[in-house]
Design brief:
The chain is mostly helical and 192 residues long. The chain has one domain (15-183). Helix content is 68%, strand content 2%. It is built from four helices and two strands; from the N terminus they run αααββα. Strands 1-2 form a two-stranded antiparallel ribbon. The protein is globular and about 45 Å long.
Amino acid sequence: MISFLEFTNPVRFNLDGAAVILFYFMIYALVGWLLENSYSYITKRKFFKSNFFLGPFKPMYGFAPVLLVLLIGPETKLVVILLLCFFIPTFIEYLSGALLQKLFHQQWWDYSDMPLQLHGHICLPFSLCWILLSVICIKWLHPVITSFYGIVEPLWAWVWPAVGLYFIAELALAIRRHSSQALTPEPTNPIQ
């Protein structure tokens, strides 16, 4: 048992469940955008880092917490929680990096100079950070977000289809934008 986590998972797999999952995804993708840009500012003095989407959302940061919230319950043992908090974000980071590189010939992050890295997409030091960030998310952030959802749920019931369409449009535009960039040939030097 995990007594240090007071965890509730109100998600059911139906239309209302889809609304809740989209809400969590939106909040966590926004928090991820803020986290990543803050890290960029601290390390490089540049707040706006290149982004797959045009808007302030990092889908990778939306998917990992949603999966963790769905997979971890009050009866989940601590060792399982820690393993999930290591493997889920690491797997999503690797899959995202590999797909982005394969499909769009771009690499939005590169851990090649870090120890114990795999293809520059993941590395052990950051995977260990994901454990800490995921536990913080589950223990402190998610209960706040769940409470906030309870407050905004009547409004969200009307708004969430439009938010879903927004993310579909963002995805379609991002694929189009990055595909055209991947197909654009590198400029040649006319002096040669």
